[in-house]
Design brief:
- It is a single chain.
- This protein has 234 residues and is α/β, with parallel strands linked by helices.
- The chain folds into two domains: 114 residues, Oxidized Rhodanese, domain 1 (3-Layer(aba) Sandwich), CATH 3.40.250.10; 98 residues, Glutaredoxin, CATH 3.40.30.10.
- It is 42% helix and 19% strand.
- The protein is built from ten helices and nine strands.
- Strands 1-5-4-2-3 form a five-stranded parallel β-sheet. A four-stranded mixed β-sheet has the order 7-6-8-9.
- The protein is elongated.
């Protein structure tokens, strides 16, 4: 019985030790201290293409093949994992821990890393007129003065966002004077994304009288969004 309890405690300790969440400063320091670190970005390929930590590999944790793709990593060395804000990296860490990996997670993800001006690479050249940030305070003022506000979180490098752009423009014209539609550039509006826990784009948030009533992730159709707005206007 004693041996069984000791073995159980040892397994619990290993599980806890194998997945640690580190602050930006701790994550960066541990990366530098590790010889040939394994750094994994578990966002989508589109998000990765908009910028990532230097020398990071990319595997989308929501891809069904994610588990099988982990075979390329060495279980004898720790893996440093991050996503946009921490949600998906936690999912990835859990899967990796179950497969025997030692994992370090970046607390706050890529958003926290970039807001602290840490090094990144792979960022596309910005156009001459870059998007202005939508701040949490600015959105709060909009929701105070408008009964219904739809916020579209997008990025120029995000393919689904580009596909949905004509739909958003159509809605702006269709619901002019009834619904305030705000386009929030994900690269410029990081504080707003953190405030509303947006960790994937495209994401649409519907706020009615200042309260978040709907969160939609991924490509949406014009018919579906029109139905949602019509019901919300009733």
């Amino acid at each position: 019985m004693k041996t069984f309890l000791l073995s159980s405690l040892a397994l619990i300790f290993v599980s806890i030790a194998s997945a640690q969440t580190l602050t930006t400063a701790e994550f960066e320091a541990r990366l530098k201290q590790t010889t040939a670190p394994q750094l994994l970005d578990v966002r989508t390929t589109g998000e990765f293409g908009g910028g990532h930590l230097p020398a990071a590999a990319n595997l989308d944790v929501r891809n069904p093949a994610f588990g099988d793709s982990l075979a390329r990593f060495d279980k004898t060395r720790p893996v440093f994992v991050y996503c946009l804000s921490g949600g998906r990296s936690a999912q990835a860490a859990q899967q990796m821990r179950e497969r025997g990996f030692s994992v370090y997670e970046l607390q706050g993800g890529y958003l926290k890393w970039t807001t602290q001006l840490k090094p990144i690479e792979g960022v596309p050249a910005q156009p001459a007129t870059s998007a202005k940030a939508i701040t949490p305070d600015a959105l709060q003022k909009l929701t105070a003065n408008n009964r219904l506000v739809l916020v579209d979180f997008y990025a120029s490098w995000c393919a689904p966002c580009q596909k949905m752009m004509p739909i958003i423009e159509q809605l702006q014209a269709q619901y002019a004077g009834k619904v305030t539609i705000v386009k929030a550039d994900a690269d410029a509006s990081k504080a707003l994304m953190q405030a509303y826990q947006v960790d994937e784009i495209p994401t649409l948030l519907l706020l009615k009288e200042g309260k978040l009533t709907q969160r939609l992730i991924g490509l949406q159709t014009a018919a579906m969004l029109s139905e949602l707005l019509d019901k919300s206007l009733q």
